[in-house]
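INSTRUCTION: Work out how this chain folds

Fields: amino acid sequence; protein backbone structure tokens

Chain under study, with its fold:
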Amino acid sequence: MTLPDHLSPELFDLLPESPALLVLDFDGVMTDDTVYVNERGEEMVACTRGDGMGITLLRRAGFPVLVLSTEKNPVVAARCAKLQVECLQGIADKTAELRRVCSARGVDPGRVVFVGNDVNDLGCARLVGCSFAVSDAHPLLLRAAKGVLSRPGGRGAVRETAELILTRIGHEIVYNDSDRAPA
């Protein structure tokens, strides 16, 4: 399958030949890392629907997605439930948890794609076969990640990653099967 013009060949080449799992941080990856607090102390975040579409396209292609977050706020679980993706939250040591997940699922960490934005993602970035930092990530993660996405957190980074993976696994980037290009 040909790489669409809007995707980076350099980032595409960083993907494992046969990726097995996409792991996403939540705050700063699925959001722009901003939190809104109302007068009742309730927190809210903004997520981009385009990133949600990227996750939906991966799900429809049968590609597993996992959100791994240190955040305990119910907004994380609510967004993941809406997108129908597995979510592990309130995780103090994300690297240890990612090792556990890979072991429990029999997934080689070399076949995992991870997207993060901050220093609590450094270990995960080093553990997996392909790690991406969002374009507005912390400088330490920008240096540790294998690649830097063109898009910032909460503004298309997840969609960019999803489309790279879809292309790698040979899935056309379309919503409906009837929209596929004729063979």
